[in-house]
Amino acid sequence: MYTQPENRSQAEKITLATLVKMKAAGEKIACLTAYDASFAALLDNAGVDVVLVGDSLGNVIQGHATTVPVTMDDMVYHSRLVGRGLKRAFFMVDMPFMTYSTPQIALSNAARLMQEGCAQMVKLEGSGKQAEIVCYLNENGVPVCAHLGLRPQNVHKLGGFKVQGRGKQAARQMLKDALLLEKAGADIILLELVPQALAAEITSEVQVPVIGIGAGAGVDGQILVLYDMLDISPGRRPKFVRNFMQDAAGPRAAVEAYVQAVRSGSYPGPEHSFE
Ligand code: KIV
Fold first, then answer.
1. SS3 of residue 240 by DSSP
2. Is the distance from the beta carbon of residue 213 to the nearest atom of ligand 1 less than 6 Å?
3. Active-site positions?
4. Segment 95-142, tens digit of pLDDT
């Protein structure tokens, strides 16, 4: 508690342009979630490229069964904490349920996340139907990550956490949505629980970086919920999560092993992916 802050990495600050260059160079992007300043600094020092304050905080911090109860005030609060821990990583923050239902509402909430929470990019769960919102945010200078595939905020509509984009028609629709959202101005596409072949196809069709979670190895980068890969989350571990604490001396070593595994392409393996 009273120790001096660790010497921060002098490495260059990661920007959106860095991530685009990494995609072009075929360098994998390592991303993780964080919810507080101490873990944020640990991730930053361990070489994580993108840190997300996910609305998964509703599950892992607040103990809810879904992300639906998470509010803008919750996100702003945790973003402030995480922002204080970051020096190098690019900083993305989730827009919670019902906070981007119209372009105007989305813009005023995104402004809060950027001005009060220090976010450099907002993430919203969408389909092609959110293109107008993405376009409005883009026109107003807000960098956007569009989250496709499994959209946990829709869990009550979907009836559970299931792989998305299975079947020819659903796969075509997801590719179409990704292209539409890119055209509308999305700077990053995130794919959750998507068959690996479809995720790889979307990655090669769009110009922007594609980050996957349960979407196989053919994407430009990986993200996991920090508490899942540190084996803190209660309950059954999802198929796509590797427990990086298993062979690590501590959380810092586990996060370094994750960064190394993403960069080298050894994570995710076929056992973490969906056909
Ligand atoms: O909320 C979150 O943590 C997320 C990740 C699972 C990508 O959206």
1. coil
2. yes
3. 192
4. 999 999 999 999 999 999 999 999 999 999 989 899 999 999 999 999
Which atom of ligand 1 is nearest to 225's Cα?
Answer: 3
Nearest-CA residue for ligand 1 atom 8 is 54
Is residue 31 within 8 A of residue 222, CB to CB? The reply is yes
Q: Are strands 210-213 and 221-224 parallel, antiparallel or unpaired?
A: parallel
* Position 22, amino acid: M
Whose alpha carbon is nearest atom 3 of ligand 1?
Answer: 54
**pLDDT at residue 13 greater than cutoff 70:** yes
User: Dihedrals φ, ψ of 255, to 5°?
Assistant: -70, -40
The structure's pTM equals 0.95
Distance CA 36, CA 53 (A): 9
Q: Which secondary-structure segment (H or E) carries 229?
A: helix 226-229
| CA 2 – ligand 1 centroid, Å | 32
